[in-house]
Design goal:
Layout (H helix, E strand, L loop, with lengths): L6 E8 L6 H9 L5 E8 L6 H11 L3 E3 L9 H11 L7 E5 L4 E2 L3 H11 L4 E4 L1 E4 L5 E4 L22 E3 H12 L10 H11 L4 E4 L4 E4 L12 H12 L2 H14 L4 H5 L1 H9 L2 H8 L9 H12 L4
Parallel strand pairs: 1-2, 1-4, 2-3, 6-10, 7-11
Antiparallel strand pairs: 4-9, 5-11, 6-9, 7-8
Helix pairs in contact: 8-10, 10-11, 11-12
Length: about 300
C-alpha cells in the first residue's frame, strides 16, 4: 500500500553527532512513499553538528532547525523541547529519531500501515543493534504487553517510535503542563507510559525497522557483555532506575483515569517501598516486565533491597 500523501514529522535530537548524523539524515529523507519533514533540535553541539544541520536546513526545505540551540543537557530534555516547540501543523503522523542510527527505507511506510490497519495510536519495533567492529544483535522488545509494564520499562528504543497526530497532540498538551524537572530522564519511556496509562493502543512490531548503532556515547543502548551488564547493575545500585520508576508512578497518581483505580495500591507501594510493599510488588512482577527473566531479576532486586 503506497502512502504518497501521508505527511510525517520526524523529530531528531542532536548533540555532538557529527560522526554519524549525515548517514542517519540521508536514511530519513530517503523514506519511501511518505512526505517527510525533518525537525531538528541541537543541544549545544561543539563538534560541527550544529553547523551541519544549520546548512542542511538552509538548503533543503524539508528540514527545519529549531532556533533555540542552547544546551539543555540531555537527550530527554532535548526531545521535550522538540515536542513542545515543533510546528507539526500539517503532519498526520510523528516519528522520533536519534542522530546515529540508520533507518530501513520503508520504516515509516510500514509503521503508518501498522497504525492505520491495526487502528493503533502508537507503534514501535524491534531493532538490529550494530557495532563498528561488525557485530550485529537482534533486539527483541515485542513480548506480549503486561498490564503495568509501562511503570518499569519502555516499549523499546524511542528511535523506533511512530505516533498518530491525534495521540501526539494529547501527549504534547500533557507535556506543556509540566516542567522538565518534573519529568523522567527518558522521554521515550514517558511517552509509552502516558499512552498505556491513558488507554491508547500501542503495537510493538516484531520486524526490525532500523539499525541501532552502538558506541560509548549511547544514552541507553544495548546491554551486551559483562561490562555493559556491570554498568546497568551500577545504575540500579545507585537508585537511578528506582527513582525513574517512582517518578513515573507518581505522575500516574496525579492523573484521573480508569487504570489508576484498578492499580492504586500497587502505585502507592512503589512510592513507599517498605518491607511489606516489596513483598507485594515481588508477587506482582508478572505485571511489571514483559520478559520472564526480567521478572525474576526484578523480584530478586525488590526483596534484596537492590532496587
Amino acid at each position: 500500500m503506497n502512502l504518497p500523501n501521508k505527511k510525517v514529522a520526524v523529530l531528531l535530537a542532536t548533540y555532538n553527532g557529527m560522526k554519524w548524523i549525515e548517514e542517519q539524515v540521508e536514511s530519513i529523507l530517503a523514506q519511501k512513499n511518505v512526505d517527510v519533514r525533518l525537525i531538528i533540535s541541537d543541544d549545544g553541539s561543539i563538534d560541527g553538528t550544529y553547523n551541519f544541520v544549520k546548512k542542511l536546513a538552509e538548503n533543503d526545505d524539508r528540514v527545519i532547525l529549531l532556533p533555540d540551540h542552547s544546551s539543555v543537557w540531555g537527550a530527554g530534555k532535548n526531545f521535550y523541547r522538540l515536542i513542545r516547540q515543533s510546528d507539526i501543523s500539517d503532519a498526520e503522523f510523528v516519528a522520533l529519531a536519534d542522530q546515529d542510527d540508520i533507518w530501513l527505507s520503508n520504516k515509516l511506510e510500514y509503521q503508518i500501515n501498522t497504525l492505520i490497519n491495526r487502528r493503533s495510536d502508537a507503534t514501535s519495533s524491534n531493532v538490529v543493534a550494530f557495532w563498528d567492529d561488525g557485530q550485529l544483535a537482534f533486539i527483541n522488545k515485542a513480548q506480549p504487553l503486561k498490564s503495568l509494564d509501562y511503570l518499569f520499562e519502555s516499549a523499546g528504543p524511542g528511535c523506533s517510535f511512530c505516533m498518530t497526530r491525534a495521540f501526539f497532540d494529547k501527549f504534547r498538551h500533557f507535556l506543556l503542563t509540566r516542567e522538565d524537572h518534573e519529568l523522567p530522564d527518558l522521554h521515550d519511556w514517558l511517552i509509552y507510559a502516558y499512552a498505556r496509562a491513558t488507554n491508547h493502543k500501542w503495537c510493538i512490531e516484531e520486524r526490525p525497522l532500523l539499525k541501532y548503532r552502538q558506541h560509548q556515547n549511547n544514552v541507553v543502548g544495548v546491554h551486551k557483555g559483562f561490562q555493559a551488564s556491570a554498568r546497568r547493575f551500577m545504575t540500579v545500585r545507585q537508585r537511578w532506575y528506582r527513582s525513574q520508576v517512582q517518578l513515573i508512578s507518581s505522575i500516574q497518581l496525579t492523573q484521573s483515569h480508569e487504570k489508576l483505580t484498578q492499580h492504586l495500591s500497587l502505585l502507592k507501594s512503589i512510592g513507599r517501598l517498605n518491607f511489606f510493599d516489596r513483598l507485594v510488588l515481588a508477587c506482582n512482577v508478572k505485571k511489571f516486565r514483559r520478559e520472564r527473566s526480567h521478572q525474576l531479576v526484578l523480584s530478586l532486586m525488590l526483596i534484596t533491597y537492590i532496587f
